[in-house]
């Protein structure tokens, strides 16, 4: 399996493209959901879409992807509207209502599906396709449908960029400016539903939530600007999608959906650890650097004080004196080694050090800065 | 009803009750979606435990699942605590990873074994009675019944013994900590119970519907009462009701029992959402309407009061002027005056309105307040 196969193997190309499209769209729309603290909306809508698919099939008798997608979208949209109105009219909180709706809708979908199949065993109802996605059996036509829908969704996002930005961050302000926030809320929700439904075929219900939340969460670590976050989320989603598809096709018995999820989760972990300013490891390293600097400054200051108080400025001082002055903070030897490297001190013998003129100048500069 | 039918319904009711108990606290503590996360993540626990025991009916599976459930919660809190992602996003990040690992492990290493991810997620109640519990050679009933009853008793014991601590830790964490209860421990024990319940129930209703039984009945009951004890009792009752009606619905349609139970739980919620006294939609709408009339009447009384005994009184107190002044439509004006008359707030002498003592009192009280 090499990169060339990506272009020559039809199935791999199709799956990778489909996964890539999924990644971009769900990453971009997921950013809005994550920002509005509706991260699990993806999970809820994916589960709620099931009865929509069943009803669409029951009404039209057709299993054409577009028909099923439409059914899924309507059901998902209904569930979201119900969620918003139940939260607004009762004292139930978002999470309970989401959990309620997703499980009830899904259960209802199950009833419909088993009713259709006339068998009490839901497992036989071809449900695995919906639960886990059928990435490996994506057709070029499916990918084209996904891409067209995805493009429409992204076009709307670009068109309503300012409005959605207001909606996500300060909807009261937006309302005061005259924008119709309720309408925009519904519009954004609709786009999110479409984005989710588009991806359902590829990774399935359970994992769609990851594709929604993970790229956006990863992207958030790298930037504070909305446009950057959305672009990065789309990029991460695409990378995860394509690599997941490639990796799973190169190994036997590795289902595509879960592989994609693991790829995007790896991106999340890397982002959480190493992103500048927010990354955990990055911050740890910065804290260590700061601690190091503080210790050096402290020893430098001590040497300077000693040389001021001593009649002979060229007198070398023993490291044990410095350690005593350090009040147990440790790291004196290391600080001295670093300062020697910088040319600030000169080691006279195995345990005595003296400030060089360069070091003296550095110390004085720090004192001036401190007193400024 | 045949024994089989009775057994199935019994199992269903026990499952519903066992789920409703921890579910109450999940809903109250805003952790409902953790049940969704846990019920997906335990697949990994089951797989790992299966690799160790090679036995699908081993009790080790329950412990493996419970451990993974607690692990899920721990990871979510760890991630949320870094401050880099919010709590709901953290949930959405953790469980798909665990679930995916579980699915991949199954595909790669357990492909031949009947450890269907379908079975884990969906379950099938209709087949539960066929797995019997044989003790000393005697068949004393379906295994699922004993398992779930045990879990039910466990949950019940926990809630009864630690009722005060749970109540305090749920509603006032600070006070609980200050008093020496350890809310964190209670939290993790609760999550452990949720995991155990989810595992026990997955065979019967599947993980996704465990969520329905954990969240829907308590959410419904939350619209009906303010008291914790009643909340718990009502949740169990509603859960049991959903179970039984769900069973009969499934029989009528020849469909998935678990799905039907979830659907009925939803239907009951819908009914309560509409009809609940005080909190239901209908009650709210009626209250609003009543308040609208009362407000209009009060405004009318105040208006009359303000113009009483003044020069314009004859003009201002005419019923035709009211609509113009208050910007009311004519039919509305008529009805407001009619209601006010019925309430004894004013008298209507062919279009000229005058306040009664009661009306004057109402106007004065409202202005002062």
Topology at a glance:
The complex is a heterodimer of chains A (372) and B (369).
Chain A: H1 3-8, H2 10-35, H3 41-60, H4 65-89, H5 94-117, H6 127-132, H7 140-159, H8 161-169, H9 171-177, H10 181-220, H11 226-250, H12 256-274, H13 280-309, E1 317-318, H14 319-325, H15 332-342, E2 345-349, E3 352-355, H16 357-371
Antiparallel strand pairs in A: 1-3, 2-3
Chain B: H1 3-28, H2 32-53, H3 60-81, H4 87-109, H5 117-122, E1 132-135, E2 138-142, H6 143-161, H7 163-171, H8 173-178, H9 183-222, H10 228-253, H11 257-275, H12 281-307, H13 313-316, H14 319-326, H15 330-342, E3 346-349, E4 352-355, H16 357-368
Antiparallel strand pairs in B: 1-2, 3-4
Helix pairs in contact in B: 1-2, 1-6, 1-9, 1-10, 2-3, 2-4, 2-9, 3-4, 3-9, 6-9, 9-10, 9-11, 10-11, 12-15, 12-16, 14-15
Brief overview, please?
Helices cover 78% and strands 3% of the residues of chain A. With 372 residues, chain A is mostly helical.
CATH topology of the largest domain in chain B: ABC transporter involved in vitamin B12 uptake, BtuC
Number of strands of chain A: 3
The backbone outline of chain B, from C-alpha atoms, is elongated
CATH class label of the largest domain in chain A: Mainly Alpha
Spell out the helices and strands of chain A N to C: HHHHHHHHHHHHHEHHEEH
CATH architecture of the largest domain in chain A: Orthogonal Bundle
Mean pLDDT of chain B: 84
**CATH level 4 superfamily of the largest domain in chain B:** ABC transporter involved in vitamin B12 uptake, BtuC
What count of helical segments of chain B does DSSP give? 16
**Roughly what percent helix of chain B?**
over 70%
* Oligomerization status of the protein chains: heterodimer
Gap between N and C termini of chain B: 64 Å
Portion of residues in beta strands of chain B equals under 5%
Give the tally of structural domains of chain B.
Answer: 2
Domain count of chain A: the total is 2
Specify the structural class of chain A.
Answer: mainly alpha
Class computed from helices, strands and strand pairing of chain B: mainly alpha
Q: Give the percentage of residues in beta strands of chain A.
A: under 5%
């Amino acid at each position: 399996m090499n990169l060339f196969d990506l272009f020559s193997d039809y199935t791999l190309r199709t799956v990778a493209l489909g996964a890539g499209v999924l990644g971009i769209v769900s990453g971009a729309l997921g950013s809005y959901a994550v920002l509005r603290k509706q991260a699990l909306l993806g999970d809820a809508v994916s589960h709620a879409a099931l009865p929509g698919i069943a009803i669409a099939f029951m009404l039209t008798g057709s299993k054409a992807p577009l028909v099923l997608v439409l059914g899924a979208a309507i059901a998902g949209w209904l569930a979201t509207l119900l969620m918003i109105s139940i939260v607004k009219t009762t004292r139930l909180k978002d999470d309970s209502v989401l959990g309620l709706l997703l499980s009830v809708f899904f259960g209802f979908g199950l009833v419909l599906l088993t009713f259709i199949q006339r068998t009490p065993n839901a497992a036989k109802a071809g449900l695995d396709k919906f639960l886990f996605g059928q990435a490996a059996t994506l057709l070029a036509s499916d990918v084209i449908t996904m891409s067209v829908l995805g493009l429409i969704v992204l076009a709307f996002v670009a068109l309503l960029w300012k409005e959605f930005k207001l909606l996500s961050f300060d909807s009261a302000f937006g309302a005061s400016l005259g924008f119709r926030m309720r309408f925009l809320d519904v519009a954004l929700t609709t786009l999110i539903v479409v984005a989710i439904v588009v991806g359902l075929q590829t990774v399935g219900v359970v994992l769609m939530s990851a594709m929604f939340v993970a790229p956006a969460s990863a992207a958030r670590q790298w930037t504070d600007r909305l446009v950057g976050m959305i672009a990065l989320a789309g990029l991460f989603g695409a990378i995860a999608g394509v690599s997941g598809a490639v990796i799973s096709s190169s190994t036997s018995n590795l289902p595509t959906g879960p592989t994609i999820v693991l790829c995007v989760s790896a991106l999340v972990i890397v982002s959480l650890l190493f992103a500048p300013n927010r990354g955990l490891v990055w911050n740890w390293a910065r804290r260590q650097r700061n601690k190091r600097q503080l210790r050096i400054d402290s020893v430098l200051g001590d040497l300077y004080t000693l040389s001021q108080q001593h009649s002979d400025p060229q007198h070398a001082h023993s490291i044990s004196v410095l350690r005593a002055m350090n009040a147990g903070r440790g790291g004196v030897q290391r600080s001295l080694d670093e300062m020697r490297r910088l040319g600030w001190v000169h080691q006279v013998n195995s345990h005595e050090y003296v400030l060089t003129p360069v070091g003296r100048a550095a110390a004085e500069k720090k004192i001036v800065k401190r007193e400024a | 009803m045949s024994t089989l039918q009775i057994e199935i319904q019994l199992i269903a009711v026990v499952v519903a009750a066992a789920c409703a108990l921890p579910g109450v606290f999940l809903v109250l503590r805003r952790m409902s979606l953790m049940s969704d996360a846990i019920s997906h993540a335990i697949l990994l626990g089951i797989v790992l435990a299966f690799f160790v025991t090679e036995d699908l009916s081993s009790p080790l599976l329950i412990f493996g699942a419970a451990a993974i459930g607690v692990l899920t919660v721990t990871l979510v809190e760890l991630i949320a605590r870094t401050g880099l992602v919010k709590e709901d996003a953290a949930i959405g990040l953790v469980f798909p990873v665990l679930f995916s690992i579980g699915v991949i492990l199954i595909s790669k290493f357990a492909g031949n074994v009947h450890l269907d991810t379908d079975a884990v997620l969906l379950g099938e109640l209709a087949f539960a009675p066929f797995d019997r519990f044989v003790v000393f050679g005697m068949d004393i009933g379906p295994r699922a019944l004993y398992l779930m009853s045990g879990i039910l008793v466990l949950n019940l014991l926990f809630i009864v013994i630690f009722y005060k601590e749970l109540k305090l830790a749920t509603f006032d964490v600070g006070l609980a900590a200050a008093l020496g209860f350890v809310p964190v421990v209670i939290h993790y024990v609760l999550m452990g119970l949720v995991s155990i319940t989810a595992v026990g129930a997955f065979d019967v209703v599947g993980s996704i519907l465990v969520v329905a039984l954990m969240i829907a009945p308590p959410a419904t009951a939350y619209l009906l009462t303010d008291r914790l004890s009643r909340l718990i009792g009502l949740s169990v009752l509603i859960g049991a009701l959903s179970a039984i009606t769900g069973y009969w619905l499934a029989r009528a349609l020849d469909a998935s029992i678990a799905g039907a139970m979830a659907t009925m739980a939803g239907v009951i919620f819908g009914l309560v959402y509409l009809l609940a006294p005080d909190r239901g939609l209908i009650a709210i709408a009626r209250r609003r309407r009543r308040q609208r009339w009362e407000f209009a009447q009060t405004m009318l009384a105040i208006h009359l009061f303000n113009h009483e005994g003044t020069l314009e009184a004859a003009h201002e107190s005419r019923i035709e002027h009211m609509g113009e002044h208050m910007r009311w439509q004519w039919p509305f004006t008529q009805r407001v005056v009619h209601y006010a008359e019925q309430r004894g707030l004013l008298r209507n002498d062919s279009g000229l309105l005058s306040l009664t003592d009661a009306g004057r009192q109402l106007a004065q009280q409202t202005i002062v307040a």
